[in-house]
Amino acid sequence: MTRKRRRLMILALALLGLGTATALTLSAFRDNIVFFYSPSDLAAKPPGGRTVRIGGLVEAGSLKREGGMTVTFQVTDTAKSLPVTYTGILPDLFREGQGVVAEGRLGADGVFSATELLAKHDEKYMPPDVADALKRAGHPGKPGDAPVSAGEEHQTSTLRTNP
Amino acid sequence: MHRFANPARFLRIANAVLPWAAGLSAVCFAAGLYLGLFASPPDYQQGDTVRIMYIHVPAAWMSMFTYSTMAVAAAAALVWKHPLAEVYAKAAAPLGAGFTALCLLTGSLWGAPMWGTWWVWDARLTSVLVLFFLYLGYMALVDAFDDPARGNKAGNILLLVGAVNVPIIKFSVEWWNTLHQPASVFRLGGPTIAASMLWPLLLMAVAFQSYFFAVVILRIRAGLAARRVQTLRLGQAN
């Protein structure tokens, strides 16, 4: 074996080892790396009194203004949904059917009281007229895409349930 | 590839490429900025704020492209001792750091109005910040030795160790819940950006890419000249 080949082998082995170690570490800390839990995660692993972040879609038709700056709405991952209450200024992108991440505590009554609210947008970008045309056709899908089923298309990315 | 590792042959090709890369970059920047900032439509959700994308996304792509090529160069330098590989990595590092800083800065400016926060510690943002520190660490490390050969070797090892971060950045938005959106362009199932916004974005990507080639060629030329000066000095001293 030439010296070049030997150096190449050592390098390949070292990178393989490093890659495996990184993969194992990242999968072990999965619960700590995720930025938020979905309502299903929360149902499976109740957080108790801890401060946690939850995320999902703001369920269409669930937003209610309670007077003052308080709002209530349902956060859903389409499998489970969770009632949330929040007092404060809403981010610009906060709207029904869009993604949201809320930080706060789950109360004993099952209502999540949020202290901070962030809007999450998905990977779809299109001009307003294209969005209108898609909506009129009943497909809130992505531009230039053959529409699959409206419901399925809509929950592409914002929702990911963790196993 | 081994053929082009000869510095003299590389310089002949690079000198021929340089004016074309510089020209292409200027034309694409002009066209891409005009289309992106003025002629393209606003987004149906984000309105005109979406125009930050035309800087943010190419800068992010370049930050990862630059690091990947530097890691390949580091492997070539360690295994085959190519004289050009180390010169390339050193030449590209400040450019990559600049792209990463631009990506983080524009991302922060975009996050503030859209997400409602300048910064969060989600997997995507954190891994890109790590990339920025890798660039800074590499630049500090290669110059931290009296013997440049030792500095280069340490730097190459750092570059290869840091390479595990590149797939983490790319797939962070798929492996974990993040506040950052998933990929819109390089994804299975094709882009989710309307064509009228995708074209200006790709023009800007070409502009960034050719800017990188032009500047990195200039910097490699300077790096090779600096090496010659050093060998001449050593020859004189003996």
Automatic annotation (TrEMBL), chain A:
Classify the protein's membrane topology as the record does. Single-pass type II membrane protein
In the record, what terms sit under GO molecular function? heme binding; metal ion binding
GO annotation, cellular component aspect: plasma membrane
Q: Which residues lie on this side of the membrane: Extracellular?
A: 29-163
Predominant location:
membrane
Residues of the region (Disordered) are: 129-163
Q: Does the keyword Plastid apply?
A: no
Compartments where located: Cell inner membrane; Cell membrane
Q: By its UniProt entry, which InterPro entries does this protein fall under?
A: CcmE, CcmE-like_sf, NA-bd_OB-fold
Q: Provide the alphabetized UniProt keywords.
A: Cell membrane, Cytochrome c-type biogenesis, Heme, Iron, Membrane, Metal-binding, Signal, Signal-anchor, Transmembrane, Transmembrane helix
As given in the record, the signal peptide range reads 1-23
Keyword Cell inner membrane attributed = no
Q: Which residues bind heme?
A: H121, Y125
List the NCBIfam families: PRK13254.1-1, PRK13254.1-3, PRK13254.1-5
Give the record's family classification: Belongs to the CcmE/CycJ family.
The job of this chain, per UniProt, is described as: Heme chaperone required for the biogenesis of c-type cytochromes. Transiently binds heme delivered by CcmC and transfers the heme to apo-cytochromes in a process facilitated by CcmF and CcmH.
List the PANTHER family. CYTOCHROME C-TYPE BIOGENESIS PROTEIN CCME HOMOLOG, MITOCHONDRIAL
UniProt name for this protein: Cytochrome c-type biogenesis protein CcmE
From TrEMBL, chain B:
> Which stretches are transmembrane?
20-39, 59-80, 92-113, 125-145, 157-177, 197-218
Taxonomically, which superkingdom?
Bacteria
Q: Name one GO molecular function term.
A: heme binding
Q: Which InterPro entries match?
A: Cyt_c_assembly, Cyt_c_biogenesis_CcmC, Cyt_c_biogenesis_CcsA/CcmC
- One BP term from GO: cytochrome complex assembly
Keywords recorded for this protein, A-Z: Cell inner membrane, Cell membrane, Cytochrome c-type biogenesis, Membrane, Transmembrane, Transmembrane helix, Transport
Q: What is its main location?
A: membrane
Compartments where located: Cell inner membrane; Membrane
- List the membrane topology term(s): Multi-pass membrane protein
Give start and end of each Cytochrome c assembly protein domain: 7-180
Q: Which GO terms describe its cellular component?
A: plasma membrane
Similarity comment text for this entry: Belongs to the CcmC/CycZ/HelC family.
Function of the protein? Required for the export of heme to the periplasm for the biogenesis of c-type cytochromes.
Protein name per Swiss-Prot or TrEMBL: Heme exporter protein C
- Native species: Nitrospirillum viridazoti CBAmc
